[in-house]
Design a protein that fits this description.
By secondary structure, this protein is of the alpha/beta class. It is about 25% helix and about 25% strand.
Length: about 280
């Protein structure tokens, strides 16, 4: 019986020339369905992260409008104002910016909850949330994405997820061998805050990778949010955490060599059995 799942191979340490990349998680409030107000407010928080030396700044899920199900009204085109905002901030500060945006890229289909990464040179990457939050009705208004995404940002291999995706460990595990850092922007209600914090650390531990989870604070018409944003290292140690209920900019350095070291010293990823 083969020991590894089909499509997997024993992990081998790659060569890395990157010492560290500084990442920032922006825990922020959201003005309900007011794109312009949120863009204006976030400008200062992104500037604060840039002043702290951030190479990558991550905003929350649905940062322009909040977790609204009024998809037909709030969804933007793929080159809409919120993606232009990310591009402008990236160019202005010479860094990468990211966050999720409701996007309609096909008039015949429902919109998607799209996590966009924008680079200082105008590069765009995007991942469409694969697991809409059925419990809250998201699946009725946003179609699920079709594939995961891993990209290289400043020499760090980064895999993108959004909020409820965090509950599906196999999606993270499938990308583990090619991931240094998982990014998870969210609108995760405070009633399940312990789940959020526990799952972030679990994904780091079981995949021996960094995890950045950034959640909003404040209230919307249905839920309250306490934030509880975390940056976690490959052993599950918390590198930075936000005080609940207030806006904050978390900073930490992601070191690809640390991922290599952890996986070399404790090489359990290669022991996964087939399904």
């Amino acid at each position: 019986m083969p020991r590894l799942q089909s499509g997997w191979q024993a992990w081998q340490a790659p060569s890395h020339e990157v010492d560290a990349v500084r990442v920032a998680a922006v825990q922020h409030d959201v003005v309900w369905e007011d794109r312009e107000a949120n863009h204006e407010h976030l400008t200062g928080l992104i500037a604060s992260a840039a002043a702290g030396g951030a190479d990558l700044v991550v905003l929350t899920e649905m940062f322009p409008v909040g977790f609204s199900l009024a998809a037909d009204r709030i969804a933007e085109p793929p080159d809409g104002p919120s993606i232009r905002f990310l591009l402008e901030q990236a160019e202005q500060h010479g860094l990468w910016t990211g966050g999720s945006v409701p996007v309609r890229d096909d008039t015949d289909l429902m919109p998607v909850n799209r996590f966009v990464l924008a680079g200082p040179d105008g590069t765009l990457h995007h991942y469409d949330k694969m697991y809409p939050f059925t419990y809250a009705g998201e699946r009725d208004y946003y179609r699920p994405g079709e594939r995961p995404l891993t990209v290289t940002i400043e020499g760090v291999k980064v895999s993108l997820f959004v909020c409820y995706d965090l509950r599906f460990s196999e999606a993270f595990w499938d990308l583990a061998l090619t991931t240094d850092l998982y990014l998870v922007p969210a609108n995760w209600p405070s009633s399940r805050r312990e789940h959020w914090m526990t799952l972030l650390r679990a994904r780091a531990i079981e995949n021996q990778a960094y995890v950045l989870g950034v959640n909003r604070v404040g209230d919307d018409p249905r839920f309250s949010y306490s934030g509880d944003s975390l940056i976690v290292d490959p052993l599950g140690e918390v590198l930075a955490e936000a005080e609940p209920g207030i806006e904050a900019v978390l900073m930490a350095d992601v070191e690809p060599e640390r991922v290599i070291s952890v996986r070399t010293e404790f090489p359990f990823l290669q022991d996964r059995r087939g399904k």
